[in-house]
Amino acid sequence: MIRFTASLVACCVLALSHAVAGTHDAAFKSFLSNDVGPAARSAGVSQATLDRELAGLLPDTSLPGLVGPGGNGSPPKVNFQAEFRAPAGYFRDSQFNALVPGGRRLMQKHAASLGKIEARYGVPRRIILAIWARESGYGGAKIPHDALRVLATRAFMGQRAEFFKSELIAALKILESGDVSRRSMRSSWGGAMGYPQFLPSSYLKYAVDFDGDGRRDIWSSEVDTMASIANYLDKHGWVKGRDWGYEVVVPDTISCSREGPDNRQLISQFVREGVTRVSGRPFPEHELRQPGNILMPAGRYGPAFIATENFYVLKEYNESDVYALFVGHLADRYGNNRGFVADWKPTKQTTRGAVRTLQQKLEADGHDVGGADGLIGFKTRRSIGKAQEKAGFFATCWVG
């Protein structure tokens, strides 16, 4: 009797889960037929492709961040009280030690192809491989989702419905081209596809067939993946012959509140003001004649850098200082695998809520913090520094 009761309860729970999972199925099918279909046909997708790829497609309601059909539900509340993660947390030596050997092996394996890619796009191989490492662990990370289903679900009931609808149509155009099968077109839960984690629109613009097999394959072709990353950076303005940046010592006579790409000046001018490389070596002669800017991801509590325009090209791949710095640092470590010279000093523990409150106070005082989002970008850092100096303190450009 106990086993029978347990089985009955299990069956009821299973039936209920199926009922919940199918709540939006009819509306979803109508959305695909009446909204996506006409837009895709106008974009050049054939009816045969639509019939083949959309038949039987159901929404994946397990995806995070969904709000309801038409994007009309209540959006998930942003948890501003979540723990704020200081930059030091992104740069554990163990991460780099795990990634460096794989990058070195790929450099040897694909030496000839990487030479051709560098010649065509002007992007160093170490930068290409560092992005691939960060995005998918050189292809070792699990990319488990059906890209079309993810995009269709987000277009139907996600927070950025119109954005994902355009990405869904781009994905249908990829399937129309025959570059990849539906079964192989795998993505993250956010719809980013393959080894380089391209959204479908980026795939259409920047993916290339570099191995000559007639297909732009970022899901299994290592050569196509590397060339596509290089093409993306090239098209976003990578400056050939320049590095991403240099770790430096910024003397106390230069305020950390001068950080930011809108405060660029010739690197030679920074040298005259006392900025030196941590290695003790001079800057390359050709770099001295080029502009750069101060970068202090943790204010005076961490390493400092002179960043070039190419640092901000890396941010075109992912709009995050620590992402771009991770990529640049990993690229450097393929050589000697040495960490930063300066330490990430311990900082006061805080929360995103506390940071957001601070940003709102700075905004009220007339500072441009780049938006009160609970994250500390360069505009927030230098605003903190200016407020500290105004109050008569030495600027650290960090909370605390």
Sequence-ordered SSE layout with sheet pairings:
Blueprint (H helix, E strand, L loop, with lengths): L1 H20 L3 H18 L4 H8 L38 H17 L1 H11 L3 H12 L8 E2 H11 L3 H17 L8 E2 L12 H7 L15 H14 L9 E5 L15 E2 H6 L3 E2 L7 H4 L2 E5 L1 E4 L3 E4 L1 H9 L3 H16 L15 H13 L13 H13 L10
Antiparallel strand pairs: 1-2, 3-5, 3-8, 4-6, 6-8
How is this structure best summarized?
With 400 residues, the chain is α+β, with helices and mostly antiparallel strands.
Which characteristics define this entry?
single chain; 400 residues; alpha+beta; 4 domains; five-stranded antiparallel sheet; two-stranded antiparallel ribbon; 16 helices; disordered N terminus
Task: Describe the protein in words.
The chain is of the alpha+beta class and 400 residues long. It is 49% helix and 6% strand. It has helices at 2-21, 25-42, 47-54, 93-109, 111-121, 125-136, 147-157, 161-177, 200-206, 222-235, 267-272, 285-288, 309-317, 321-336, 352-364, 378-390; strands at residues 145-146, 186-187, 245-249, 265-266, 276-277, 291-295, 297-300, 304-307. The strands form two sheets. The protein has a five-stranded antiparallel sheet. A two-stranded antiparallel sheet has the order 1-2.
